[in-house]
Amino acid sequence: MRKPVLLLVTLLSAVAGALAQKSLRPPDVRYEPSPPEVVRAMLELAGVTSRDVVYDLGCGDGRIVIAAAKEFGARGVGIDIDPQRIAESEENARKAGVAGRVRFRNEDLFEADISEATVVTLYLWPWVNLKLRPKLLRELKPGTRVVSHWHDMGDWKPDKEIEVSGRKIYLWRIPPRNEQPPR
Questions:
Q1: How many angstroms separate the CA atoms of 72 and 68, rounded?
Q2: Alpha helices in the chain (DSSP H)
Q3: Where are the domains of the chain?
Q4: CATH classification of 2-179 is 3.40.50.460, yes or no?
Q5: 20 to 30 Å CA-CA from 113: which of 2, 41, 55, 144?
Q6: What CA–CA distance (Å, rounded) separates 5 from 155?
């Protein structure tokens, strides 16, 4: 009796794991992690606190949401199209002791629900930022902070811009609906 139940549980776990690692389109950008000093500066520029939910779109190895949880007490959600990066992120969160404060989702960032975010972090290419901009303006609540490492948002001027280790970091706040830049 125990053997069939154990076999069934193992089989269901394997099926659930396979479904979680869904095959999506190729990534828009190659994986290139932000250096630790840039990660910290991004989170500080956004004013992250324990009340925040930090979303990292294109989360890679999870370092930004893990730092947000570990160093600032925030909750975090990492979204990446690459299932290998999601597995790596989950392992990194476990090792950092913050697995209970962060989640990682294997999703297309253009289709993912990001409405819960109070802070969104990006390290994408310029054309991806521009393509993502209408989604950010449409789905995020006014006041939500958006921080981008290296790339701006075209004619949407940042509220603040800093440089760390020769790298630009931009901050925007989602304006009220009636004051938004063109999408």
A1: 5
A2: 2-20, 36-45, 63-72, 83-96, 126-139
A3: 2-179
A4: no
A5: 41
A6: 59
